[in-house]
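Follow-up to my post from last week.
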Amino acid sequence: MADTQNQDMAKVIEVEDLVTHYGDRKILDGITMDVRDGEIMVIMGGSGSGKSTLLRYLMALETKTSGVMRILGQDIDDLSAREFFDLRKKMGVAFQGGALFSSLTVGDNVMLPLYEHTDLELSTMEIMARMKLQVVELGGFEDLMPSELSGGMIKRAAFARACVMDPKILFCDEPSAGLDPAVASALDDLILKLRDAMGMSIVVVTHELESAFKIADRITVLDRGKILMIGTVEEVRASKNERIYNLLNRVPEDDTMNPDEYLARLTGEEYKVGNQPL
Amino acid sequence: MAEPGEQTPPSGLYRFLDKVGRYAVSAIEEVGNGGMMVAESMYWLFLGYRMKQPVRMNAVIEQMNEIGISAIPIIALLAGSISTTLAIQGIYTLRIFGAEGHVTAGLAFIVVREFAPMITGILVAGRSGSALAARIGTMKINQEIDALKVMGVSPVRYLVAPPLIAMLIMVPCLSMMSNVVGLFLAGIYINIELGISLAAYLDQIIEILKVEDVLQGLGKSVIYAIEIAVIGVVNGAGVRGGAEGVGKATTRSVVQSISAIIITAMVVVILTTG
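User reply:
Got it. Predicted complex:
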């Protein structure tokens, strides 16, 4: 009993039977998973498997159709607006493109969460921002604008901003996408370093196998909106599942799509992720 | 002739009605979104401190500077040009009846009640409404709005409330400035053309204009401010399809804002001028 309780306490995210729709179309189907305290959970899958969509739901950016989602032990359906804002202060995100605010300097970007959520002196916030930038090896870059940074540097700055409030959970969407192998590998090292130094739980969405195997404690493999398996790197590598084998060995699949569905997705008529009002 | 059970393509009328229906629903949805954003902005303005998320006054001041102070030269220039044009046309028309000396009356009413707020609104829509749509649209496609949400920062409080409040303050102020500049420059022309002294011209204006006339103009400019901000934000938030989508949203925002301003002016004048 005590062991069960400890396991429950150790889960920072719990998802039970998550189902989501856009219009009549089911996007995620019966997702049940958890993320444990201090672990790096990698969500993997091919294009269109629903991994980025799942990440948006884990970050509570979208409204689910059914299912239960608990973040840091709190059922998100039971939270008041204020409790929800407070919960979000314990989360950080590094989006694929960095999502740095182009009108602010790198330093101001990193300082923004502190400015919005704390009553610290400006000089203290500046010191904290500088420290986080040094952690991601961008010390001295605080006065530059995001447009003056390279792709890898933008992602590092996004990590610094995501970590400035010392969140319990860090979400990363395709951290190594679009980067050369050396920079991508350095970012993987940074993710490991952040987990070890700050003890946070990290959820990473990626389709880069090398990166996933390097950083993951556990991997969730997603396919067409459903979970194929959740396991350690070794368990995923050893899986006999045909679709996982194809994914790991880069075997192309005969994925035929209904032309009407494809066109609807292309024109955004039905596929409305992120099209809600502010 | 279709066989039994075979699907026939929808008729032209059906497709037309379907399209009209979709546009209508979309328009109602956008109006609803706009209303919600205004309400939410007011919530953050007055109650944000309870959530420890007040609307930052330095952001409002920055927007007031951008929307208001930076727009003064162009608005003054156009308000003066249009008022002078109205004075010229007014004198030309009234001269037919030998009544050009009464040009001040028509000019004062039309500038204060209609043209000053309208020109101000149109210019703010072109400068700031489009900029707002472009900014929010770009932030949306770059996932900056999602980043704000995950940080626990309300995008409406951070992005919408400051320009809305700034517009509510600055558009009436700019409109008042347009009144002064427009009537002054038209007065100079009247002085040159008809020999009426500026002091006499000013006396005529003070005699003719009532406080309600000025308030009607300012009231309209408040409505225009809300329309410009809401249309800019709704179009920016609805951006799809990358940079091209941002361009379309910006254009749509300007067209819709100017249309809304002109239609509002017509509706108000119908309702208030018997």
